[in-house]
Amino acid sequence: MISFKQTGNFSKLTKFLERVKETVRLGNLDKYGKEGVTALSSATPIDSGKTAKSWYYKITNKNGVVSISFYNSNIQNGVNIAVILQYGHGTGNGGWIQGRDYINPVIRPVFDKILEEAWKEVTKL
User: Fold this and answer.
1) Is the model's pTM score more than 0.90?
2) Residue 64: which of 28, 26, 34, 36 has the closest Cα?
3) Which pLDDT belongs to residue 23?
4) What was the pLDDT predicted at 46?
5) How far apart are CA 110 and CA 86, in angstroms?
6) What is the Rg, in whole angstroms, of the alpha carbon atoms belonging to the chain?
7) CA torsion angle for 65, 70, 116, 13 (degrees, to 10)?
C-alpha cells in the first residue's frame, strides 16, 4: 500500500506559475513593442531623421492590467515633433502646416495582432 500525505499549501508554486504566466505575456508584448517602434519609425516623415529614430515603448503592469504605450522623445522648444507632424501646426508667420495621419495606419495592424493573439489565448480549449 502506498499513501501520500501533504501538509501546507501550494502558494509558492502558485506565485511562481503566475510570474511565469505574466512573463510570457510581457514577452509577447515586448515583441509587439519592437514591431510597433519599427512600424512607426518607418512611417515617420523624415527631414533630419531624428523623430523617426526617437520612437520607444513602455510596458506597464499595474494591478494586474498590462498595457503597452508608444512614445516619441523628440521634443523641440517644448513641442513633441511627432505630434505636430500627425496633427499639424501653426508657423511663425501665421500660416498652417497640415498634419499627416501617419501613426494610426501603421500602429493599427500591431494592435490588431495583439488583439488576435489575446483572443486565441482566451478561447483555447
Assistant:
1) no
2) 26
3) 47
4) 84
5) 18
6) 22
7) -40
DSSP annotation string for 56-117: EEEEEEETTEEEEEEEE--EETTEEHHHHHHHEEE-TTS-EEE----HHHHHHHHHHHHHHH
Find out whether 59 and 34 touch, Cβ atoms under 8 Å: no
How far is it, in rounded angstroms, from Cα 35 to Cα 107? 9
Cell 501546507 identifies what position?
8
Measured in Å, how far apart are the chain's first and last C-alpha atoms?
37
Q: What is the pLDDT of residues 39-86, one digit of tens each?
A: 999 999 988 899 999 999 998 888 767 788 999 999 999 999 999 999
